[in-house]
């Protein structure tokens, strides 16, 4: 966009549109530069303009007579593409309350850029598969067959603070394995998810995966905690009609 000749009055605002249309899943960087000059063509007076410090030289343009001809504002812009949101079947992690379950969840990252100049060759939809074995490790770096090393960062995001407070301490997640297809530009990440609910619930979360070379992928995950097992059966024997029968039992708190 070029706004050459745009006039601004005192305290007037100027909206600058920035359009981002990525064609590959990699990070893009640009700079928005605004150059302001006086409408009458005069310069701003400035003493010792020939000895401007380094920071000021990058933000002004100096005229031949020593005055400041223009002022520059420079805004860096970083564009991070996000995979198209399609209706995905959520990976379901189900467990009885007061028990613990581990589940392997595999997510497929499409259109991964394996080279700075590479274009994606596969445009298939993102899929979720929950039945793949893996070896344990903390993070994955794709190096074999790729010209640049890629690191994947991940987190679980929740719809509200209330859901996060309920699930945050009950869910654990680790990236345990990665598989890659250099021809299609597809990377499959396998996570081990631990779910240990303390009461019945049904909450949704979003697994967000970020690649350091650029790109964000999101996958739905559904956590379901069913009713817990019965702790014990209490039998009360009647001592007679219209008479109270009492039985005692102890309850132990799980916290202080």
From TrEMBL:
Pfam families: Ig_CFAP47 (PF26579)
Highest classification ranks of the organism: Eukaryota, Metazoa, Chordata, Craniata, Vertebrata
GO biological process: sperm axoneme assembly
Domain CFAP47-like immunoglobulin-like: from-to ranges: 82-226
Top-level lineage group: Eukaryota
Signal peptide: none
Source organism (scientific name): Ardeotis kori
Protein name as catalogued: CFA47 protein
Gene that specifies this protein: Cfap47_5
Gene Ontology CC terms, in alphabetical order: cilium
InterPro entries, alphabetized: Ig_CFAP47 (IPR058952)
